[in-house]
Design goal:
The protein is an alpha+beta fold. It has helices at 2-16, 18-21, 56-61, 66-75, 106-119, 150-164; strands at residues 25-30, 36-41, 79-90, 98-103, 121-131, 137-149. Strand 5 (121-131) and strand 6 (137-149) form a beta hairpin.
């Protein structure tokens, strides 16, 4: 029950956070274990572009931080998680509500943690799509993420700082 309350509390405050709220996207669901998150983006006066469809910038911005935030919650304070980049493919103009369904499976998580355990860090790409209720794809985003142990990352920063001196 405590986990469910925390995920609902987290969702509520995410939707108030200016960098999320201003995109027009709304987090409609976060699972208590943070392995599943859904974002809804509707066509409104704030998300409408000059040709009357959902602005591509709203599509991207409303998906931007979520894999990173989910991994930060799942992995905890012993890890560093960063977004490194994204490749976007706009498939079709959207005029109706669209949904991004973020899922982190046990297999995805094991692959990340196994690689970090052996190498100290890893960079990987996960894809997310914006779809409507009929599963029509409007946009795809290949999110590039970086995960490292805190120890590895601190050592990397020290080496970087000493090289600058």
């Amino acid at each position: 029950m405590k986990k469910k309350f925390y995920s609902e509390f987290y969702r509520f405050f995410l939707n108030l956070w200016p960098c999320i709220w201003s995109t027009g996207g709304r987090v409609t669901y976060i699972s208590p274990d943070f392995t599943h998150l859904i974002v809804r983006l509707k066509l409104t006066w704030r998300t409408r572009n000059v040709v009357g469809t959902i602005f591509g910038g709203s599509m991207y911005a409303s998906t931007d931080p979520f894999f990173m935030l989910m991994l930060m919650e799942i992995l905890g304070k012993k890890y560093v998680v960063w977004d490194k980049g994204c490749t976007l493919r706009f498939k079709k103009p959207a005029k109706k509500p669209i949904y991004a369904d973020f899922k982190i499976t046990p297999e995805m998580l094991k692959e990340v943690t196994d690689k970090v355990a052996t190498e100290g860090r890893t960079t990987f790409t996960w894809t997310i799509q914006y779809k409507d209720k009929e599963d029509v794809v409007y946009a795809e985003f290949d999110k590039v993420l970086y995960v490292a142990t805190k120890e590895f990352y601190k050592e990397k920063l020290k080496l970087s700082d000493s090289a600058k001196a």
